[in-house]
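To illustrate this point, we now present one chain and its tokenised fold:
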Amino acid sequence: MAEFRLAVVQLLVTKVKADNLQRACTLVKEAASQGAKVVVLPECFNSPYGTGFFAEYAEKIPGESTQVLSDTAKECGIYLVGGSIPEQDGGKLFNTCSVFGPDGKLLVKHRKIHLFDIDVPGKIRFQESETLSPGSCLSMFETPYCKVGVGICYDIRFSELAQIYAKKGCQLLVYPGAFNMTTGPAHWELLQRARAVDNQVYVATASPARDESASYVAWGHSSVVNPWGEVITKAGSEEAVVYADIDLQYLTDVRQQIPITMQRRNDIYNVSVVHEG
């Protein structure tokens, strides 16, 4: 199928997990009713984002939150990219995205590979590694429409991951993410457009809605970017569902017009996988 509708849910996350799950479920069903075949939720959609919250809200997978995702995907007959949740496994915590198919089955589980450890003096310091452990696997899944690569937030800064996904046939990259009020206005859209243009793919990002009262204030502006680097849909800062019609023939046309995939000098340089997982 050359075209399909993608929906990105920008959820206003609260400290009440049950409310987050119910609201996410409602908005996913709304997206499906508007024809979305693939729906993406934001990073940490079931809990506030912060090192002080991860352990408190962490679950095993399968667990409460992923069961809701599974049931909703099956009820709606969609592919559901479950943002991320704090996952507890083997005495460690991970920032994990679970993807479910139209039959409700778990297709892939992506643990955030690159942990968000930054220090911008006078603006923001955040160290995910204080509580979280990094994942060690690439994460892709097949749909009848195209192959999809999954990253979480800080993963988008690492162009090598996107290059590998594209090399492995992914035409859509999804990044649930929660950039903040410092990195958001500076880099959020820039990175999405860069990954899209570099690899001639569609890129979708799903942020939590902005809550000025939260300890970590998300930038919002969930977006979808096409292979030409154009932002084709973008939310504001508030809770919203935004849609994009993904046109894979357009992707093919762009790759024919500017054929960088055939022009790469693999005799001089290469990006390769060391550990696929």
Observations:
- The CA atoms of residues 42 and 203 lie 14 Å apart.
- The mean pLDDT is 97.
- Residues 17-33 form the longest helix (17 residues).
